Amino acid sequence: MRKVLNLIFLVSIIAILSVGCSSTNINGETHGSFKKKRTDSSFHKIQIDKNVEYIKFDLQAKIDEGIFKIIIQDPSNKEYLSKEIGMDEKLKEDFKIQSPKKGDWKITLILEKAIGEYRCSWKAK
After folding, report:
1. How many folded domains does the chain comprise?
2. pTM of the full predicted structure?
3. Is there a contact between 49 and 22 (Cβ–Cβ < 8 Å)?
4. Domain containing 67: what range?
5. Where are the beta strands (DSSP E) in 26-102?
């Protein structure tokens, strides 16, 4: 289990570093799968410059136990998405934000005594 957590941490760091550059084609992803109850949170930043036309998000989660929350905020902390699912619930969201504000967008993932899996990917162009 420790190796899996280390791998998830490493993948998250790579994703953060890969989206940290100012570019007009930004892709990233974070995901996790866990069989034992897990309580923690993670934070991801997407740096958007003025040339970005849109950000597209694809979110999926299946929680067998506990609670999973996801919050997506623009640089002024306006929430574009705030979802919470619990035991035996699924989340499937696929949406695009046209002409996003320039700056650091934030994705916050929160697990509260959760068992299940999630995947969050984004593409800015």
Report:
1. 1
2. 0.77
3. yes
4. 2-124
5. 26-48, 54-73, 79-85, 89-98
Q: What is the pLDDT along the chain (125 residues), one digit of tens a residue?
A: 666 555 565 555 555 555 444 445 589 999 999 999 999 999 999 999 989 999 999 999 999 999 999 999 999 999 999 999 999 999 999 999 999 999 999 999 999 999 999 999 999 99
CATH number at residue 49: 2.60.120
Q: How many CA atoms lie within 13 A of 12 on its CB side?
A: 18
Residues 6+ apart with CB under 8 A from 107: 30, 43, 44, 45, 46, 70, 71, 72, 120, 122
